[in-house]
């Protein structure tokens, strides 16, 4: 037995028995889920299944009524606020693309870089070569090198989604939470996004919430189906989509 | 401020603005003092004092633009910081009166003698020294803004709720300062000033110098604001303005950023108030009136939110119009005109004078192959969506 290891679990993310209710509505009900380091997991589920609420809990936006949420085996996320959790290395892409519209693509990435985020640090900030190289690399990955000087608000919907993924990359978190990355995208863009996420998964643990089954199939990763705030089924996309209860909740009873 | 921050903050528009303010700050006092009275180019003393007042308002507008235009904090109580700075200066000026007051008391200002006070309240100590008063001009508004901001921003009070509590703050101060037992002259405030640093406040030379100093303060304030908004911190402020919770999820302590600019802004407003008081010769509780703070926000909206120079311009233009219209037959209608102005600007010029000019000038400039400064600037006009 390794005495040095004080981790409660080896999982990157560990949720156990989590409950949240809003005014009596049980948004999350005894939810338990683990994500291994380096894993990519797709979360599916009908509307109101609690997917976004789960992300809110992990990122500190919502505090659970009960249950354990452990990050990296040691950190209890339920005690921390959004800023602290972001600093620990959890990045989040929102359902609706939220980029800083009145600033350039490059500045958006600059803001996302995980460098000194203090008031003093940013006031006296001077760019460094390492920083511009990292921005350069991210721009290439998200295919926006040519659009670097454009205002983020002028980008197409798909480009905004990529920019936001790029901001996550610049943040370089240990765990990426990606909420509906292909909503409103064309087929080509959807395909490119799947490629992009696979690329990102080489160095990061990723959790993707998505409705688009073609996209989830293309990712080819383990799938968890949520329903009424708890896990309904887990396995490969074929196993999950042939599960009778999953079919039932998706098609309605 | 480090040299690179200074060079980065100076684009063409900023340099032009500074040049104009510096020219006014030098030429107007010189013409007033050196040319013979009555000459066509001589600026009469009453105008120097009037324009000095406008320059102080411009500094106040600048301080509001820093938080509203760049960080989305709409303070409807900034007049409070302006007035507090003014009171700090007023207290110094009161103690300079000495035995020349009506009651001739060497320590106590007239209103305290009148109220039968036997000794100076503790919070008046030190105000006989200029350096102490000057420090308080920055410290008192700064401290109030820090405490207020610490509570408000930590509790994530934003938008219209924040605007309402800033109104409540200035209104509470208004009521407090109206009271005689508060120790600041009650209803009448502080007035009858004799001299500042040994110079007679009524003298032409003093007035001209105060005007020049106000212009200098405007220049310094503008440079500080430009250095802030062109730094990476400025980008974070705009990010907070446009998408606050996104900024938080990137790992920025939004409340610390807001607290920082809010405090800097309050200190600037305090300086504006301190320069205002010796030029107008009085400070009384009406400076805390909520209407004053709202008016100051209108100046910024008219000039152009998020443009700094526009805020200063708006302050001067609106106040010039105010002076012009309130001294004629139109006087009773001034408030209607101010209201109409605000509505028209919001409808027709949502970016304000300078913002609209920039939007018109940018494509023209780009077409003519002038280097695109705006993109390097990283600062664009905000949406008027408050």
Describe this structure in words.
The complex is a heterodimer of chains A (253) and B (386). Helices cover 36% and strands 24% of the residues of chain A. Chain A is of the alpha/beta class and 253 residues long. In chain A, strand 4 and strand 5 form a beta hairpin. In chain A, the strands form two sheets. A six-stranded mixed sheet of chain A has the order 6-7-8-3-9-10, with helices on both faces. In chain A, strands 2-1-4-5 form a four-stranded antiparallel sheet, covered by helices on one side. Chain B has 386 residues and is mostly helical. Chain B has helices at 3-9, 12-34, 45-71, 78-97, 110-114, 130-154, 159-178, 204-230, 232-242, 244-249, 254-280, 290-303, 309-326, 334-348, 352-367, 373-377; strands spanning 190-191, 195-196, 199-200, 282-283. Chain B has a two-stranded antiparallel ribbon with strand order 1-4. A two-stranded antiparallel ribbon of chain B has the order 2-3. Mean pLDDT of chain B is 91; it is low at 369-386. Chains A and B meet through helix 2, helix 3 and helix 4 of A and helix 9, helix 10 and helix 11 of B. Chain A: Residues 13-253 form the ABC transporter domain. Chain A: InterPro entries: AAA+_ATPase, ABC_AA/LPS_Transport, ABC_transporter-like_ATP-bd, ABC_transptr_urea_ATP-bd_UrtD, BCA_ABC_TP_C, P-loop_NTPase. Chain A: GO terms for molecular function: ATP binding.
What distinguishing features does this structure have?
heterodimer, A: 253 residues, alpha/beta, 6-stranded mixed beta sheet, globular, B: 386 residues, mainly alpha, two-stranded antiparallel sheet, two-stranded antiparallel ribbon, 16 helices
Q: What's the SSE pattern of chain B? A: HHHHHHHEEEHHHHEHHHHH
Report Rg of chain B. 21 Å
Number of helices of chain B: 16
Number of strands of chain A: 10
The pair of chains with the biggest contact is: A-B, 33 and 32 residues
How many strands, what sense, and barrel or not for the largest sheet of chain A? Answer: 6 strands, mixed
Strand order of the largest sheet of chain A: 6-7-8-3-9-10
Overall mean pLDDT of chain B stands at: 91
Number of domains of chain B: 1
Termini of chain B, distance in Å?
A: 32 Å
Mean of pLDDT of chain A: 89
Oligomeric organization of the protein chains: heterodimer
Distance between the termini of chain A: 50 Å
General form of chain B: globular
């Amino acid at each position: 037995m390794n005495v040095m290891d004080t981790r409660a679990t080896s999982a990157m993310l560990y949720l156990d028995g989590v409950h949240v209710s809003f005014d009596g509505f049980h948004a999350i009900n005894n939810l338990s889920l683990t994500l291994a380091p380096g894993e990519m997991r797709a979360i599916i589920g009908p509307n109101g299944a609690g997917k976004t609420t789960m992300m809110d809990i992990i990122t500190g936006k919502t505090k659970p009524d009960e249950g354990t949420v452990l990050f990296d085996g040691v950190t209890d996320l339920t005690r921390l606020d959004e800023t602290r959790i972001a600093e620990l290395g959890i990045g989040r892409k929102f359902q609706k693309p939220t980029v800083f519209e009145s600033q350039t693509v490059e500045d958006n990435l600059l803001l996302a870089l995980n460098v000194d985020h203090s008031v003093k640090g940013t006031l006296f900030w001077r760019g460094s070569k390492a920083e511009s190289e990292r921005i350069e690399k991210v721009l290439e990955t998200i295919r926006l090198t040519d659009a670097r000087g454009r205002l983020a608000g002028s980008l197409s919907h798909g480009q905004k989604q990529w920019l936001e993924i790029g901001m996550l990359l610049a943040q370089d978190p240990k765990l990426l939470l990606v909420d509906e990355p292909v909503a409103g995208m064309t087929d080509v863009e959807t395909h490119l996004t799947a490629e992009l996420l696979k690329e990102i998964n080489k160095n990061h643990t990723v959790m993707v919430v998505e409705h688009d089954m073609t996209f989830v199939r293309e990712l080819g990763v383990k799938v968890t189906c949520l329903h009424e705030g708890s896990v309904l089924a887990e396995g490969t996309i074929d196993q999950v989509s042939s599960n009778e209860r999953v079919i039932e909740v998706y098609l309605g009873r | 401020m480090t040299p690179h921050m200074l060079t980065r903050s100076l684009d063409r528009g900023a340099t032009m603005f500074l040049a104009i303010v510096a020219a006014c700050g030098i030429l107007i006092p010189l013409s007033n003092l050196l040319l013979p009275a009555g000459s066509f180019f001589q600026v009469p003393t009453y105008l120097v004092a009037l324009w000095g007042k406008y320059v102080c308002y411009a500094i106040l507008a600048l301080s509001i633009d820093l938080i509203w235009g760049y960080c989305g904090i709409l303070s409807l109580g900034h007049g409070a910081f302006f007035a507090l700075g003014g009171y700090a200066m007023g207290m110094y000026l009161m103690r300079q009166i000495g035995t020349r007051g009506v009651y001739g008391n060497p320590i106590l200002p007239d209103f305290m003698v009148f109220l039968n006070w036997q000794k100076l309240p503790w919070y008046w100590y030190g105000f006989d020294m200029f350096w102490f008063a000057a420090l308080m001009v920055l410290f008192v508004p700064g401290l109030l803004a820090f405490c207020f901001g610490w509570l408000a921003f930590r509790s994530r009070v934003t938008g219209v709720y924040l605007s309402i509590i800033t109104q409540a703050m200035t209104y509470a101060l208004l009521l407090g300062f109206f009271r005689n037992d508060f120790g600041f002259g009650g209803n009448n405030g502080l007035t009858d000033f004799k001299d500042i640093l040994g110079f007679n406040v009524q003298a032409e030379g003093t007035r001209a110098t105060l005007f020049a100093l106000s212009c200098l303060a405007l220049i310094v304030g503008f440079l500080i604001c430009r250095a802030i908004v062109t730094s990476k911190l400025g980008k974070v402020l705009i990010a907070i303005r446009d998408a606050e919770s996104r900024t938080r999820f990137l790992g920025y302590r939004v409340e610390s950023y807001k607290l920082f600019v809010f405090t800097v802004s309050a200190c600037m407003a305090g300086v504006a108030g301190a320069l205002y008081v010796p030029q107008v010769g009085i400070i009384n509780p009406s400076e805390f009136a909520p209407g004053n703070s709202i008016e100051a926000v209108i100046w910024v909206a008219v000039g152009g939110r998020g443009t700094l120079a526009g805020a200063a311009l708006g302050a001067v233009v609106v106040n010039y119009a105010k002076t012009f219209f309130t001294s004629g037959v139109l006087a009773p209608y001034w408030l209607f005109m101010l209201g109409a102005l605000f509505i028209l600007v919001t409808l027709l010029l949502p970016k304000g004078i300078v913002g609209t000019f920039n939007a018109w000038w940018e494509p023209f400039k780009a077409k003519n192959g002038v280097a695109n400064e705006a993109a390097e600037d990283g600062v664009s006009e905000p949406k008027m969506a408050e």
